[in-house]
């Protein structure tokens, strides 16, 4: 199939010569002109159809992308639920005599539960002023708005 810009250039040249009366009106010339216009029209319709098809493909890909995102979230949530289920089951068994939770291990996996939880601070019993100086850090930041005034 000829390229659209080649056909449009050829048609443009023919029309320009016809307007300048440089071309005699012959049957072969009008046949060439009609042929070029026909090919141009076919190419335009082909490219318009191709453009519509590409837009439809892009729309389908957008739908597929959204479906995969939903599937990804679903799989991640399921993995998180399974992890919590395993942790809760091991905690329910309770620690052994040494205070450690049982570890399950094979060639591929090792499943354990950490004994230490999140640190909690009793604010009533803890006074920042009583802490050693090495544990506290004070940063002095100037108030720029008051300096400008």
TrEMBL record:
Q: Name one Pfam family in it.
A: Sipho_Gp157
Q: Which InterPro entries match?
A: Sipho_Gp157
Under which name does UniProt file this protein? Siphovirus Gp157 family protein
Q: Which organism is it from?
A: marine sediment metagenome
């Amino acid at each position: 199939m000829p390229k659209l810009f080649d056909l449009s250039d050829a048609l443009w040249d023919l029309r320009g010569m016809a307007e300048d009366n440089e071309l005699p009106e012959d049957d072969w010339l009008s046949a060439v002109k009609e042929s070029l216009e026909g090919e141009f029209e076919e190419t335009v319709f082909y490219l318009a159809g191709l453009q519509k098809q590409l837009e439809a493909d892009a729309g389908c890909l957008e739908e597929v992308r959204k479906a995969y995102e939903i599937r990804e979230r679903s799989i991640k949530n399921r993995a998180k639920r399974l992890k919590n289920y395993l942790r809760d089951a091991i905690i329910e068994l309770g620690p052994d005599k040494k205070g450690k939770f049982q570890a399950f291990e094979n060639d591929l996996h090792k499943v354990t539960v950490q004994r230490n939880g999140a640190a909690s601070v009793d604010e009533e019993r803890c006074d920042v002023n009583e802490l050693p100086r090495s544990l506290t850090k004070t940063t002095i930041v100037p108030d720029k708005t008051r300096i400008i005034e």
